[in-house]
Specification:
Elements (H helix, E strand, L loop, with lengths): L1 H13 L1 H21 L11 E8 L5 H16 L5 E9 L2 E8 L5 H15 L8 E4 L26 H17 L23 H6 L4 H10 L4 E8 L2 E7 L6 H5 L7
Antiparallel strand pairs: 1-3, 1-4, 2-3, 5-6
Helix pairs in contact: 3-4
Length: 257
């Protein structure tokens, strides 16, 4: 053993240039590998998977399982390079998880699932809405923050105003950051108008709640009506009917007698 080491040392001394060059190459390769190494405090060990979320309002867990989850699961069977298809059925919600092999590109997997999902929509209830989950894994939730009022009375905002700050200022800015797949909002209060009907008064006019709902839906939209040309000038004609305040709701005509 000692003689082998002596011969190795002697050969290294005779070929100093080769030894120095090889050592330099190894050192440079090590530095490059260290600089480009992907590091994470919490390594992502979750499988390569795509989520399908289907909302089916009004259905019980058993009905969701039979009418929504089962048809979607069957549609996902047989996808190339899948390892597992599983699901969770809740009140009004179905979540189907399709797991692929680790070597499969995530966006290729999402494209395959998207195609099968579209093919299966005809088998779902009419009010069911399906969508793909964000392109992120279970380890992807990395940051949470709080939008709150300051202590200054002059800067006090209502809960609706804070929600608007989150939805229209903070959220769009965060979604432009590289690596951010989705920004979810928890809590807050969205601005809405509630209409409380008096059934007895509706009955007195020969109307139903459906008549009231239809009138409100049909009178809450803007629409285009073409254009008018006058002396070489084109004027756009629009119908402004979208509700912006409670007064607009009060002006809606439910029926004429």
């Amino acid at each position: 053993m000692g003689a082998l080491i002596d011969r190795l040392i002697a050969a290294s001394l005779r070929h100093r240039a080769i030894v120095v060059g090889a050592t330099s190459l190894l050192a440079a390769a090590g530095l490059w590998s260290f600089a480009t190494l992907n590091t994470d405090a919490f390594p992502d060990l979750t499988p390569n998977q795509v989520l399908i979320m289907i909302e089916a309002p009004g259905l019980s867990p058993a009905e969701v399982e039979q009418q929504v989850t089962y048809p979607m699961e069957v549609a996902m069977l047989g996808l190339p390079r899948t390892t597992d298809v599983r699901s969770i059925s809740k009140v009004g919600l179905s979540v189907v998880t399709v797991t692929f092999e680790d070597a499969v590109d995530l966006y290729f997997a999402r494209a395959q699932v998207q195609q099968r999902m579209q093919d299966a929509l005809h088998a779902l209830p009419a009010n069911a809405e399906a969508m793909l989950g964000p392109p992120a894994t279970a380890m992807g939730e990395a940051f949470q923050y709080l939008v709150e009022r300051t202590d200054s009375a002059a800067d006090t905002l209502s809960l609706i105003e804070l929600t608007n700050v989150q939805e229209y200022i903070v959220k769009p800015l965060l979604k432009t950051v590289p690596g951010v797949a989705e920004v979810n909002t928890w809590g807050g209060m969205l601005q809405q108008f509630d209409v409380f009907a008096d059934p007895s008064r509706l009955a007195g006019y020969g109307l139903t709640l459906h008549d009231l709902e239809t009138a409100l839906a049909n009178n809450n939209a803007n629409f285009g009506a073409g254009y008018v040309e006058d002396r070489g000038e084109r004027l756009t004609v629009r119908g402004i009917g979208r509700v912006t305040n409670a007064g607009d709701i009060a002006d809606v005509v439910v029926a004429t007698r």
